[in-house]
Input
Amino acid sequence: MKASKFLMAATLAAMTSVAATSASAKSLTLCWAAWDPANALVELSKDFEKQSGVDMKFEFVPWPNFADRMLNELNSGGKLCDLMIGDSQWIGGAAENGQYLKLNDFFKANGISMSDFIPATVTGYAEWPKNTPNYWALPAYADVVGWTYRKDWFSRPELMAEFKKKYGYDLGVPKDLAQLKDIGTFFQGREIDGKKVYGAAIYTERGSEGITMGVTNALYNYGFKYENPKKPYDMKGFVNSDGAVKGLEYYKALYDSSTPPGSSDWYMSANIDAYKSGQVAMQMNFAFIWPGVNADPNVGGDRSGYFANPPGPGGHFAQLGGQGISVVANTKDKDSALAYIKWFAQPKIQARWTEMGGASAMRAVVEDPGFPTAQPYNKAFLNSMAIVKDFWAEPAYASLLLSMQKRVHNYVIAGQGTAKEALDGLVKDWIEVFEDEGKL
Amino acid sequence: MSGKAVDGIAKMPPPDIARKVKGLSDRAIAWIFIAPTIFLLLAINIFPLIWTIRLSFTNFRANRFNAEVKWIGLRNYERILSDPDIWQTMQATAHFLFWTLFFQVLIGFALAYLINKKFKGNDLWTTLIVLPMMLSPAVVGNFWTFLYQPQIGLFNYVVGFFSGVDPSSFSMIGSVNLAPWAIVIVDTWMWTPFVMLICLAGLRSIPDTIYEAAECDRASKWRQFWTITIPMVLPFLMLAVLFRGIENFKMFDLVVQLTGGGPGSITELTSINLKREAFEKWRTGYASAYAVILFVTIFGLASIYVKALNKVKER
Output
């Protein structure tokens, strides 16, 4: 009898202590992609944990599965994530489907001003509808597609002389897309230090968003526009304009003339591998890779240079990457989640974020006089961020993206049909999507 | 305790159960036993099927619970059946299905025939041959992308070595002409052992006395093969084709890892296309109609095939 009473008392005490522990220990789960900046954020967040007493947990998913996994989480009303650093294109769907909290009142109450951030990142990562002061995220990671090149190869006298003789201008950072292709072709199949090398690693991936994130860098600069600036969702003659057709033909020509064999399904990591292994003279990639390239023992330091996506005959743009941080509507601890955003928005934290391997979108950080020279790639980053353009951020962005992946891959990689047919088909697909959405 | 006493205890039901069961008919007891299974079948098979059919007539999107769900009749079916892109995926699936079955039956039967002969190391070879099918399809897809790499891949090197072609001059998964064959090769490599095992079971079920009788009748080896071996293995072979056919109609993971459906949409099989419609575009109603069409196709073809199989067995 005594023993059973003791057992009951012990059980009760244990249950009380568990309940007390769970009541006092707050925790937040932050969801993002699994990549180097995420590791930097884990380190940075220790400061928040120390200040707030909130335990930070992280759910990181590799890029190829990131959208699938996290959009399923949002769409199914899951409670895994309290904070989400989601892709810029998700903002429309997440806002309209009530998956993110609107942050306007919170920003106002806490003195967080969107004018403190790079305007393009506010539009790209935080606003829905676009160009309206409705904020669903705080710009968290500024990113953009840019180029890395082998500075050491570019500066070899024999190659410089041969290039000049062949093309009539100096081998160096390309001034436009035509020169970029010339350089790619020049290096294609060339033997350097006893090894066969190729011109450029570009985005060609089919399964998620790869080729779209690549081809837009050519399309934008040849005159492609998503819609009539004066009439929303009017796409005929803008998506498939003569300039856009030329842009798509350019990307195919670049793929055919300058890329390594077998690069028909390459995205971020494949391009990094090709570049770091000395296989290519140039690589297209998001700017997040630049710190890693700079630190690489084989291609880092003075051996590599960085430049913004070159202009074309129709303009000068680069594909926006990056993400904003949002509070998931299903969070179990809204106050702590908002406290994290407030902490993250502080200028000193943003400065540390950049130092640790993140990429702040705060103007105080990137407009600091020392920033352009602090790292060899910072100037290219600033030049690139000044010319960004993003893909649709509509709630139906996934349908729009999949159609583009299919049409563009069919033409550029599979060589089926013409560029005009591919873009006409894309217009047809996109019209169908917007009709389904009730927007046309 | 005596043996009889033990038997008596074993035959007597425990008093509680006996009291409870008393008064229930055999039929009622049978229902009690099968009810959980029937409930599970209804819950996880029949109900979702009926629900899918219902959704296929709507514009429902699973990521927009607040949106109005409209009844749109046969519109989803019309759109699917008149979409040339869907027909292209059907064509890609048919190509994949036909050639994988063809090669797996041919090579699987040949391997089974060889393994059936008694020779030294027979067991070791059998183990080695069945290894590929023990691997995960995602792993197989992933490492074949390396084997197919034009610059460092073993496959291109071997082809180059025997044909004299420059290994980096062709890309198995990047070429429109070669990619459909690239996925056929990998699936054949992985699943031929399965067909081989089934054929081996068939070959080993043929009594030696039949061959001995044929020898007495002076039937040639060739004649024995065509009149004894093939007819007696045929039901097994047809069963293997049925299993592999159903599996390959649903093929997803291996091809996604290998090609992602590319280049373009050349290797986009119906299941890949369906997954994109259902869980990337979130067109749930449309994807439901698509799934119903695929279900009817597989079910219809499998039913015809099973009838043929039964006829072969009866012969």
User: Anything to note?
Assistant: Chain A touches chain B through 34 residues (CB under 8 Å). The longest helix of chain A spans residues 2-24. The first strand of chain A starts at residue 27 and ends at 33. The CA atoms of residues 392 and 429 of chain A lie 14 Å apart.
